[in-house]
Amino acid sequence: MSRDGSTAYTSVSYKVAADALTDAGKQKLQDVIDRAEEAGLTVEARGSAVSGSVGAGGIGEAVGVAVAALVLLITFGSPAAAGVPLLTAVLGVGISTASIMALGSAFGLSPSTGSLASMLGLAVGIDYAVFVIARYRQERAKGHDAEVTALAANGRSNTEIVESLALSPLTVRTHIQRAMNKLDARDRAQLVVMAYQSGLVRPGPPPNTG
User: Fold this and answer.
1) Which domains does the chain have, with CATH numbers?
2) Alpha helix locations (H) across 46-112?
3) Who wins on pLDDT, 31 or 19?
4) Do 129 and 84 touch, CB atoms closer than 8 A?
5) Which 8-state DSSP code applies to residue 20?
6) Distance CA 178, CA 173 (A)
7) Of residues 84, 65, 167, 201, the one with CA closest to residue 132
8) Tens digit of pLDDT for each residue in 22-40?
9) Which of 23, 76, 168, 203 has its C-alpha lying 20 to 30 A from 101's C-alpha?
10) What is the spatial distance between Cα 199 and Cα 155, in angstroms, rounded to a whole number?
11) Residue 127: enclosing H or E segment and its boundaries?
């Protein structure tokens, strides 16, 4: 209780877990709150006994996953590359949530633990999966500048280059832009001319990509 007697705080503990409380048990607490308010007191009650158990997998997580999927699809330009981070994150969160539900009562974990674990798990899981994929694509893309430029010089479109080299559209655009910057080309047509003039691409059949 505060020194001036205007504010007091107390904890109410039950012998059973929040999800095992009956409606009658919750109503007894509510009756005490109602009587205190009728006596002119202002009462605020918080906790799982009042608000119910907080679980994982709510609408917030669903919206978060949907937004993450959209951002990853725009970033990587490939459903497969966008799906891998989501898949690994969801699997990790699913296993963690199942473990929390199974061991929560035995270890006295808070009802909000599942929700917190799902939010952190999705964030960290997607973050590290994106890092791994980005690093893999960076390493895989090394050495493709000449091939991409050669195919572009032979009149191949970005889509055809993607199919030929099994690269993502974003990676192909990055290679072409890198070649344009390297040769100081203003557009794709000038890139083709300067690629031949500089010796980056030599006349002949397009590289074998089969």
Assistant:
1) 18-51 (no CATH), 59-140 (no CATH), 145-198 (1.10.10.10)
2) 48-51, 59-76, 79-107
3) 31
4) yes
5) G
6) 8
7) 84
8) 778 778 888 888 888 888 8
9) 23
10) 17
11) helix 113-141
CB 174 within 8 A of CB 144: no
pTM as predicted:
0.43
The rounded distance, in Å, linking the Cα atoms of 174 and 96 is 38
Residue 75, both tokens: 């970033």
pLDDT tens, 115-171?
788 888 888 888 887 887 777 666 565 666 677 777 877 778 888 888 887 777 877
Output the six-digit token pair for 105. 């009562």
Of residues 205 and 146, the one with the higher pLDDT is: 146
Neighbours of 12 (CB within 10 A): 11
Question: Angle 59-76/79-107 helices, nearest 10 degrees?
Answer: 150
Q: Is 17 exposed, middle or buried (0-12, 13-18, 19+ CB in 10 A)?
A: middle
Residue pair 25/13 in contact (Cβ under 8 Å)? The answer is: no
Tokens, residue 1: 């209780």
Give the DSSP per-residue string, 34-47.
Answer: HHHHHTT------S
Neighbouring CB atoms inside 10 A of 124's CB total 13
Give the DSSP letter of residue 12.
-
Question: How many angstroms separate the CA atoms of 150 and 116, rounded?
Answer: 51
* Residue 46 CB-density burial (10 A; 0-12 exposed, 13-18 middle, 19+ buried): exposed
pLDDT tens readout for residues 164-179: 877 778 778 887 887 7
